[in-house]
Amino acid sequence: MKLFLQSNLQLCRRGHQILRDRLLSTYSSYSSAPSGLSRRISRAGDPSVSMVPILEKWLEEGNDIKLSELQKFIKQLRKFRRYTQALQISQWMTDQRCFILSPGDVAIQLDLITKVYGFEEAEKYFSSIPENSRGYQAYGALLNCYAHTKRLEKAEAVMEKMKELGFVKNALPYNIMLGLYSQMGKYEKLDGLMQEMQEKGIGCDLYTFNIRLNAYVASSDIEEMEKLLMKIEADPLINIDFHCYTTAANGYLKAGLIEKALTMLKRSEQLISGNPKRSDYEVLLTFYAAAGNKAEVYRIWNLYKKNGGFFNLGYQRMINSLVKLDDIAGAERIWEEWYAWKMFFDIRIPNLMIEAYCKKGLLEKAEALINKIIESGIEPDGVSWNHMAAGYYEGGQMSEAIEAIKKAISQSKPGRKASFHNVEVCLKYLNGQGDVEAAEELLKMIKENGCYSAGVYDKLLDCVNKENLTINKIC
User: What is the pTM of this model?
Assistant: First the structure.
C-alpha cells in the first residue's frame, strides 16, 4: 500500500512530462473521451479485471483523462459495489499521475481501502496523512471505517476525538454512531445519543429517523415504530421518503400484519416520482414477494422494464421473487428473457434457477441449464456445483453428488466455499460404504484447496474412520 504522504510537487514532476503530450493530443476531445473510456470501464464487469491497464491503454491511444471523469468513474463503481476497481482508479490517480486528491477524494480512498483490505490497512493510510491535513472528512471516513467493520470502541474513540477538534457540527457523525449501535443491538444507546444531538442544537435528519425506525423494526417494537412514523409524517421540516415506508412495511411483515405492510408499500410507491430509481422497484419486488402477492410482483416488474430496467440485479431480484412464490414457470420465462438479452453475464442469475430446480428435484432441468452455460463458453462456479451436489444427494444420486462437490471444492473462492454440509454428507456416505480411498481423495482435495480452517477440517475428519486413513496422504 503506497502511502498518502507524497508532496504535490513530486506528483506533478513525475507525471508532467508523460501527460503533456497526451493532454495535447489532437485525437481526443472532452466530449468524446468520457463515453469511450466509460464504456470500456463499464464492460470490465469481472471484479478481477484491473482498471489500470484500461486507463494506460486509453492514454497510449492518444486520449486524455480529466480528473472529473475519474471521480465520476469511482462514484459509479462504488454504486455497483465494484470497490476493488474503484480503489485501483483512486490509487492510480494518487500514485502514477499528476492528479491532486481533494480532501473528499482522500476520504473516499480511505473508505475503499476499508472495503477492499479491511480496517487495519485503512488505519495505516490514515496514519500516513499529515496531522495538519486530517480534516473532518478524513476523520469522518475513519469513523465510518470502524462502524463498517463494527469496531465499537475504536469508533467511540474517533467520535470523541472529532468532538474535541470541533468536527461534529451536523447529524452525519451521530448517524454513523446510531447506525453502529443499532447494528450491534445496543438499542439502549440510541435515545441518549439523540438527546445529546438535541442538547447541542443538532437537528435529527431523515437518516436519523430512518435509523431509529429500523431499530424499532429490528426489536419488533411495532407500537413505537408507528409512533415515530406518525411523528415523521407530521414534521413539516422532514420530507418523508420511500425508505421510511418500506422500513415500516418490513416491520409489519415481520409481525405478520400483511395488509398493513401492503398499505405501506403503496405509500412508498407513491413517493417514486418523475425519474424513478430502478433500485426502488427492485426493493418493491422483494417486499411484495415477501408479502406473497404475485400479482403485485408482476405489476412492479412491468413498471421496472417500462422505465428502462434491463439490469442484472433487476432480473436477479425478479427471479428470486418468483422462486420464493413457487412460480417456477414464471421464473423460467424471466431467465430465458435475461439469457436472450444478457449484455454482461452474471453467474448468480442462472445459479438461482439451478438452486430452484435442485430444491424441487428437477435435476434434469438443472443439468440442462449447467450444460447450456458450459456450451456458451462460461464456466459454472463453485456455487453452481454446490447446488447440484445438494440436489443429487437429496435425490439419492450420491456418486453424482460427490463429483459435483469435487467441482465445487476446486472452484472455491473467498466467500464462496464449498458447502460444509454437502461435504459432510458425501464423506459420511463414503465412510458408510467403506470407500476409504475415495474419502482420502476428497479430504486431500479439501486440504490442498484450503477450503476451510484447521478446526473445520478436523470436524470433517470426524466423519470418517480416521484409523483407516493414510495420514501422510491428507496432511
Answer: 0.73
